[in-house]
Amino acid sequence: MADTQVPARGKARAARMAEEKRWRRVFLETLASTSNVAASARAADVPAARAYEARRKDATFHRAWQEALCEGYEHLEMEMLHRLREGEIKRAAGAKVGVRVYDNATSLRLLTAHRESVSRQQAVRGNREAREVIAEINERIARLRQPTPVLLEASAQTEGEAEGEGGDV
């Protein structure tokens, strides 16, 4: 009887290990694309607390987490640059034509929130001092916050449209 229970326990353990590996892979992939721990945990179908616990207990997972955040941060930077240069076309309900919108507050908050951990990871990657990397990131964020000619033009158009709407009827 004991012989039949051992393989069952072994199968259960193998299944738990496979599930652990699966959620970690999904979590890290999502973290690399979103820079969002809560969204990554939801995608992996685990509580965020479990992911944080795994990060605390497993140095390999911690390093992979940092790499994923670093990758996500780089994607976010590129997306921000694209938005600042091109904007996003959004259509109001029932409208036939969209309006170019420049909504970057969330991206700037994420860039600022992850700046420290990403700078440490980039320093590790390039064997550079963290202070040097932080200064570089701060410089990038400052550049992102500066209005671009396209942004200034869109802002002027929006103001002009708002003045036109409130005028003659």
Give a quick rundown of the structure.
The protein is mainly alpha-helical and 169 residues long. It is built from seven helices and two strands; from the N terminus they run ααααββααα.
Descriptive notes:
This protein has 169 residues and is mainly alpha-helical. The protein has two domains: 1-57; 66-169. It is built from seven helices and two strands, in the order ααααββααα. The chain has helices at 2-34, 37-44, 48-57, 59-86, 105-126, 130-145, 149-165; strands at 88-90, 99-101. A two-stranded antiparallel ribbon has the order 1-2. A hairpin with an 8-residue loop joins β1 and β2 (99-101). α1 packs antiparallel against α2 and α1 (2-34) packs parallel to α4 (59-86). The mean pLDDT is 79.
Please outline the helices and strands.
Blueprint: H1 2-34, H2 37-44, H3 48-57, H4 59-86, E1 88-90, E2 99-101, H5 105-126, H6 130-145, H7 149-165
Antiparallel strand pairs: 1-2
Q: What is the terminal separation in angstroms?
A: 89 Å
Principal-axes shape call? flat
- The total strand number stands at 2
Structural class: mainly alpha
Radius of gyration: 23 Å
Q: How many helical stretches?
A: 7
Largest sheet: 2 strands, antiparallel
Q: Percent helix among the residues?
A: over 70%
Q: How many distinct folded domains?
A: 2
